[in-house]
Design a protein that fits this description.
The chain is of the alpha/beta class. It is built from 17 helices and 26 strands. Bound molecules: adenosine-5'-diphosphate.
Length: about 550
């Protein structure tokens, strides 16, 4: 190899800290409480606290490579942990506050967390595990909420802990390939799997996320992510925003439409982010109240498919929905859908079709689609569908300490478990998750496409489609529908079936359409299809009984 003359400076999160300290110390941060009031601060204070925190952790005996967990919502304190922990060489392990306690216990023990920073609002959950998490030597209590009951070994208040640290912490020199953070995927089968991000992967992801054709973050932006900081590093936005010097607003755990709209309005938020189930009620509120959010340039939406009706609806209010795709395993941002300059003359409907796709792959990441049976790579013709596989410098290459990991990878590519097409311009369209595709009489039905169509009906707020076991067809689709509040009782299954009949093939029509109060959600706010399948299992039992009668 002919050597380059470039400096070999490691890409570490310390560089973001260096920037915010020197360039953006006066830029504001705000954390909202239940009553809708903000506590205000700056990046300057964040850096001072990160120094003290790192110093206090070192005094506590935390060493490079040790896992230090967080168990909390979106607040400035959480962002301080995001910097102090990896920048001192330890590993930030974000724990999902909505997991079942058995999963939480498994994850804490699997990662061998030493210290946990815990929001008081979720302290009782942690206390219920007190005698099952032997590696945890200290719990630091953040934000408002109940006082400890004495079950945990040792607890300390966040500010007391800060006070035990020094103002200036001598940040160590780090290897860019060292672990910076880890996050476990929720995993519908088997145990959760740990994904470990490096400093290098986090830095590359932050740079890519900030690009104009990605999230497009600049110093002048105000970000409010309604995606929890325990989920895939809040889509990497806390680091990307800090790197660029954008202001950040934290909604804590209050993610209902009223509070979100209040924050977006008050703080003149320019970029927000969240799963579709966050934006569907926001759109409904804007439609009902006529409220305007002129500062809001864009909402980043992913985690599950953004229905075209949502994209078009937000556009009526002047809000651009940027549809993105990613996974915990992919840091997560892999693709975004944008209208290209060459599409300027296209009709609005055609543009909406593009916006509803999951977009084109971002720089540094590569993808391909592979036939589900033969394992052969498929053409980018917009028709052939197969498993989407990705690789790149911020895509996980394995799972932490997990011997079953190999089936998730193929020749150096991550198998996403998503079924997709890629069109000749490179836009990916997700057909479904492999496990959610409805297999009817040897043919596939996309639950996502049916949901999107049903959610475009003017009387429908939300809809989820699942395949249920069927004695004759193997599986048949069933739709669970939540009507808009003003249409409760006046929307019928016949009306929906008639509406769908000229939009899909007859055999795609759901066998049953049931009206429900709400669709169950996963821990990160997506439609929980396995739970829904369970709720609707009587329908399958009825089918089975009729077949044998
Ligand atoms: P979980 O498995 O708990 O949902 P992840 O957030 O890692 O955790 O989920 C990643 C998955 O979410 C992807 O594999 C894909 O199935 C789905 N997903 C993410 N973004 C989109 C999107 N824009 N459209 C459709 N599905 C999406």
């Amino acid at each position: 190899m002919f050597p380059s003359t470039m400096m070999d400076l490691p890409l570490t999160i310390q560089n973001i800290l260096w920037r915010v300290e020197r360039l953006f110390y006066d830029k504001p941060l705000a954390t909202y409480d239940e009553a809708g009031n903000a506590t205000r601060s700056t990046y300057g204070e964040l850096v001072r606290n990160a120094n003290r925190l790192a110093s206090a952790l070192a005094k506590e005996g935390v060493r490079p490579g040790d896992r230090v967990a967080t168990f909390g919502w979106n607040t400035q304190r959480h962002l301080e942990c995001y910097f102090a922990i990896p920048c001192m060489g330890a590993v930030l392990h974000t724990l999902n506050v909505r997991l079942f306690s058995e999963q939480l216990e498994y994850i804490i023990n699997h990662a061998e967390d030493k210290v946990i920073f815990c929001d008081r609002s979720v302290l009782p959950i942690l206390e219920s595990l007190a005698d099952k998490i032997p590696t945890v030597q200290l719990v630091v209590l953040m934000n408002q909420g109940p006082e400890p009951t004495g079950k945990l070994k040792r607890t300390v208040d966040y500010f007391e802990f800060l006070a035990s640290g020094d103002d200036q912490y001598p940040w160590p020199t780090l290897d860019e390939r060292a672990a910076a953070a880890m996050c476990y995927t929720s995993g519908t089968t088997g145990n959760p799997k740990g994904v470990v991000y490096s400093h290098r992967s986090t830095m590359i992801h932050s740079l890519v996320a900030a690009l104009p054709d990605a999230v497009d973050i600049s110093e002048s932006d105000v970000l409010m992510y309604a995606v929890p900081m325990f989920h895939a590093n809040a889509w990497g936005l806390p680091y990307a925003a800090a790197m660029m010097g954008a202001s950040q607003v934290f909604p804590d755990r209050y993610l209902d439409a009223e509070r979100i709209v209040n924050i977006l309005e008050k703080e003149q938020v320019t970029i927000s982010a969240g799963v579709p189930t966050v934006w569907i009620p926001v759109l409904n509120l804007l439609d009902r109240t006529g409220k305007k959010l002129p500062a809001l340039k864009k909402v980043l939406c992913g985690g599950s498919a953004a229905p075209p009706a949502l994209i078009a609806g937000l556009r009526r209010h002047g809000i651009h929905l940027a549809h993105a795709w990613g996974m915990t395993e992919t840091s997560p941002l892999c693709s975004l859908s944008r209208i290209r300059s060459t599409m300027d003359g296209w009709s609005e409907d055609r543009k909406l079709e593009v916006m509803a796709k999951q977009g084109v792959v971002v720089p540094t990441v590569e993808w391909r689609i592979v036939d589900l049976d033969s394992g052969k790579e498929l053409p980018w013709d917009g028709k052939s569908f197969g498993e989407l596989q990705v690789r790149g410098p911020y895509i996980t290459g394995t799972y932490y300490n997990d011997p079953t990991a190999s089936e998730k990878f193929m020749d150096g590519w991550l198998r996403t478990g998503d079924v997709a097409t890629i069109d000749p311009l490179g836009y990916v369209q997700l057909v479904d998750r492999t496990k959610d595709l409805v297999k009817s009489g040897g043919e596939w039905i996309s639950s996502v496409e049916l949901e999107n169509l049903i959610m475009a009906h003017p009387k429908v707020l939300e809809a989820a489609v699942v395949g249920l076991p069927h004695p004759r067809w193997q599986e048949r689709p069933v739709a669970a529908v939540v009507p808009k509040s003003e249409h409760k009782g006046d929307l019928t299954a016949e009306e929906l079936r008639a509406y769908l009949s000229d939009k899909v093939a007859k055999w795609w029509l759901p066998d049953e359409i049931v009206f429900v109060e709400a669709i169950p959600r996963t821990s990160v706010g997506k439609f929980a299809k396995s739970q829904l399948r369970e709720q609707l299992k009587e329908i399958a039992e009825r089918w089975a009984a009729t077949a044998t009668a």
